[in-house]
Each structure stands twice: as structure tokens, then as C-alpha cells.
Amino acid sequence: MLPFYIMLFLQLLIPVKSKSVEITRTLKQEGFHRDLETVLSFKLEKEIVEKLTWSCQLLLVENLPSGVYVDVDQLSSLPDNIQVLVDSDVDIEAPEYASPPLLVYIFTNLTSDRSSITLPVHVRYHRPSNVSEYAQILIENPKIYSTCLHLSDYENTEGIGAPCDNQNSSQCLWNRLQVLYNEGKSAISLQVPIGVEQHSLFVGATTLLVTMTGCVILVWKIVKKSVDLQMRKKQL
Amino acid sequence: MLKAVYTLSIFGYCVIALLLRLALIGYGEWQDRSLMVKFTDVDYKVFSDAAHYVHQGKSPYNRSTYRYTPILAFMLLPNITLTPLFGKVMFSVFDILTGYLIYLVLKHQKYSIQQAQMYSCLWLYNLLPMAVSSRGNAESVMTALVMICMMSLCKKQVVLSALLYGLTVHFKIYPVTYALTIYFHLSHPSSKTDHYMKKVLNLFLPNKDKVYFVLISVLTLVLLTVVFYHWYGWKFLYESYIYHIVRKDIRHNFSPYFYMLYLTAEQDSVLWMKLLVFLPQLCLVLAFSMKYYTDLPMSWFLITFTFVTTNKVCTSQYFLWYLSLLPLIIPSIQMSIKRAIVLTITWFLGQAVWLQAAYLLEFKGQNTFIWIWMAGLLFFTINFNIIYNIIEYYKPLMQVPSYLSKKRK
């Protein structure tokens, strides 16, 4: 009798040991147009990998900061097994300080124990500064959800209601997966060049000086220049 | 063989030019299927999607970033019902039409058939418009409209040209800058003995043609606006007119004002700066309108060239607006071949310098704002130097009365 209670007690103390998805995030390319690559690796038994079909759905929920955006037109030409839904309209011309953060749902299917998702993101213009020539943008790690039975070992207790697919016509219950991020970092960062505020006066004055001078010279030229006629080479 | 080419009529040149464009469209199909880098213009999908909505009886403005007149979506309906290539073929036909109209305008200006053919070939066999229209960009519809409008004005068909002008401005707003020069153009010629003041007065005072032109073009524009507003509501007004006027894009572009506007984007109190940015555009459009109104190609070319160069936002797509008018004025620019080549090289060089700095910013993430700005000012200077030289070496075939300059004998 006693060992049973001890066992029960111990079971309550030690949580059920569930597995974690290992996630590696990298930003490829430089400058304003980047590829945000997310690699998910699962430790699955061979039999389960063989059972994986197109119905083993994964959902990545990205919370993109206002410093970056996704181009909805570009997203429609991603590979077939990746569908993306953005929660709001995206103004691709607006600067960072006039833009809201974006909630991006990425739907994909797990067909092996490894899945790689590349999301093209673009950097917005940022407010000029007189402290640094670059601004830093932090992109948080995504939350991973699934409806797939084969991944129950990875499930966390939380579940959310989210769109079933990128058509956004119905809601599904998604189970959140336990994750382990590479090197334990909670976000990936990138640098973006920004205008130098100290340049304002010099740039403004020089620009207007050049354009006004050009304008005055041309107007002067138009007024002074008399129009002569061409000598006709042959009579038509 | 060479003789056969030489004796081709304008129709022959047009047919060959069209075949070349069709071949490019065919090549584009191959590239889109085979390579990562797509040949088709991103906007082509926008037009096609808008046509799709119209086909379903919905508003073309359901497609985000559709910022054009609904007429364009109607014109592209065969994209849905016939073949997705229809639009590209249609844009190529408009492109050829532009070339043919260049020929007609030059002939109307009493240039020889050989000259008219030669200069229209500068457009028909120019790689830039060729690529633009076969990639599915609608810019050629605009160049053709501007050209038809000019042709009807040259032929003194006031009602027709007013209808076309209203339609052209409805399609894209920039030809609104030609309004003043058209108004002056419709003045009755004043006699040589007239007093200076009388001549100027004659320019501004209305006559029958001017009243007709203003009324009909304004009515056309208003009618089109009212009809489409009735059908598609506020979204039409915003996307096809207001957006283009209030557009405040601070991202890097060829404009000399780009960095200044980026640095001061959040300062609302700088009204005087806005005025100073607007002033050169206004002064030069006024000056060109008064000086060259008798020669519409010359005045429209200079107005468009300065308007694009001094605009707050300037991208390479806008260059086509003045390049389409260039073949019309080349025969009246009497500069040496050497000078013309040097000026052309500086124009390309200015863009190359800017593109290099912009590449380092956009694709390498280096802070090159100050270099992009300097390259923008350099390109501005180069463009103004070209305009200066065009004015200097301008010698038209026809009489141009001078109101702004005192005739020196």
C-alpha cells in the first residue's frame, strides 16, 4: 500500500516528461529584403514518420514587429505546402513609426521529422536618429501549434482557437507544442540603416539651393533664348 | 536585302516591331515557367485580378493596390475570358500605336516621310518600351493616349482633343500639367505688328475654341468620375485620384528631395519647405507653357521632363512619360552628334551612380543615405543640363512667336 502512495506522490511532483520541438531561426540575405528561415526538428520514431501524411498540420504564429512587413502578393507564390494568412491589411510604403505590428499565421504540413519554412520579410524605413546610424529590430520566436495526433507527445496544455487554413473561413482548435529554441534565444535581431538627424539642416539647405539654382538658370535661359528657325534642306 | 528594309513603309516597320514584341511575350512565358526571376511585371497580376473581380460583377478595387481607372480593368476582361496573355498583346499594340502616332505627328509638322519613319523607329525599336509593354505594364496605354491627344490638337480638332484630354487625365493625372500650354495653343495667331501687351493678352483671353476645350475636357473628366464614383464609391476616388496626389512615400527614389523629405517627414510645420519644393515645378511648367506653346511636342516634352525630375517621388517608370515624347523633338534639336552622345551617356551614368548607392543600402544594409542623396542631386543636375542644352539647340521648322523674349535682329 505504502509504495503506491509514494509512487502517486512522486508522479505529482515530476511532471509528465513531454518532448520539445527544436527550432532554429536564421535570417538570410542582407539589407531591406530578408528571408526568415525557421527549421523545426522533431524526434519521431520511424513508424510515426512513415505514418505522416498531408493531414499532419502545423501552424506557426508569428508576431512581426512594426519594423518589418510581409508582402501579401509575394506570399501567394511561396511553395505549395506553405500557406500564409495575415490578420490585417499591409501598407508596404508606410514607415515603422506609422505601422502596426502584424500577426502572421503560417500553415504547413509535416511530412518528415524535419520541416523548414522560409518567410520573405521586408524592412520598413525607420525614424532618423542622432544617436546611431542603425536601428535594431527584434523578431520574436513564433508559437507552434498542431492538430496532428502523432505529435501528442509534444503537446503543451494550452490550446487556442485559430483559423483552420489561410482561407480564414472557419476556426479550429490548435494544440500548442512544447518548443526549445536554438541557444535559448527568445528573438532574432537585425540591423537597419536609418537617416542621420544631424544631416537635416545641411541636406535641406543644399537640396533647396541646388534645385532653386537649377530653376533660376533654366527660367533665365528660357527668357533670354530667342528661337531661330531651321534652314530647310529641301523643299517638301 | 538592305534595300528592302530601306523601302519599307511605316506599316512594315510597325508589323516587324509588333512581331518582335510578340516574340518577347513568348519568351516571357518561358522565363516565368523556368526561372526564379519572373519576367512578368508585378502590376500585371494586379490588373488581371481586378479584371477578374469586374468579370464577377464586383468592384476592381476589391483587389488591394489596384490604383488605376476601372476602364483598365474592363479593357483586360479578355484576360479572364480569352487568354491571360491578352493584356500583354494589347499593351504592345498600344505601344505600336504610339510609334505610329509619332510618325503621323512628325509628318504633320512637315518633316519628310524618311525623317518621320526614322524617328518613329526610335520608339518602335527601343528596347525600353518593348520590354515594358511585353512585361505587362500599362504605361503604353498612357503614352498612346497622350500622343492621340496631341495629334488631334495638331489637326485642330478641338472637340475630339478635349474629349481625349479629359480621358487621358482620368487615366493618369500627370498630363494635367499640359492644360495651360494647350490653352495658349488654342489662341488665334496674333499679327506681327501687334503690341507686346496685346500679344500676351491674346494668349490669356478666351475664345470659342478655348471655351469649348475647357468645357468639354472638364465635363468628360467629371462625367467619368461621377459614373465610377456612383459604381464603386469612395474607394475609386481614393485609389485612382487622391492616392496619387497625397502619396507620401519616403523610401529612396531618384528625386533630389528624397533624403530631405525622409529626414523631415514628421515635422508638420514646414509649410515654407513644401512651397519651395513646389515652386521650381510651377515656375518651369509656366515658363515652358508660355515659351513653346506653338510647338506642342517641345512644350509637352520639357514640361514632362522637368515635372518628373523635380517631383517629390521619382522612379524609373516615370522616365517613359518623357521618353515617348523625345522622338518628336529630336529633329528640331540641332546639336552635334558628339554632344548628343555625351549627354545621353551622362543620363545613363547618373542613374548608374544612384543605383550603385541604392543597391548598397537596399541589398547590403549599408548606411548610404548621404550617397544616395548626392547621387540624386547629381542626376538632377545632369537632367537640368540636358534640358538647358535642348533649349540652347532648339531650332524648329515652324515659326515660333516669342512673347517671353524680345526678338533681336
Describe what you observe in this structure.
The complex is a heterodimer of chains A (236) and B (409). Helices cover 20% and strands 37% of the residues of chain A. Chain A is α+β, with helices and mostly antiparallel strands. Chain A folds into two domains: 15-195, Immunoglobulin-like, CATH 2.60.40; 198-235. In chain A, the strands form three sheets. Chain A has a six-stranded antiparallel sheet, with no helix packed on it. Chain A starts with a helix and ends in a 12-residue tail after the last helix. The relative contact order of chain A is 0.18. Chain B has 409 residues and is mainly α. Helices cover 70% and strands 0% of the residues of chain B. Chain B is built from 21 helices and no strands. In chain B, helix 20 (337-364) runs antiparallel to helix 21. The longest helix of chain B is centred in the C-terminal third of the chain and has 28 residues, at 337-364. In chain B, 42% of the residues are buried. At the A-B interface, strand 13 and helix 4 of A face helix 3, helix 15, helix 16, helix 20 and helix 21 of B. Chain B: Its EC number is 2.4.1.-. Chain B: Its main location: endoplasmic reticulum. Chain B: It is a multi-pass membrane protein. Chain B: GO terms for molecular function: alpha-1,4-mannosyltransferase activity; GPI mannosyltransferase activity.
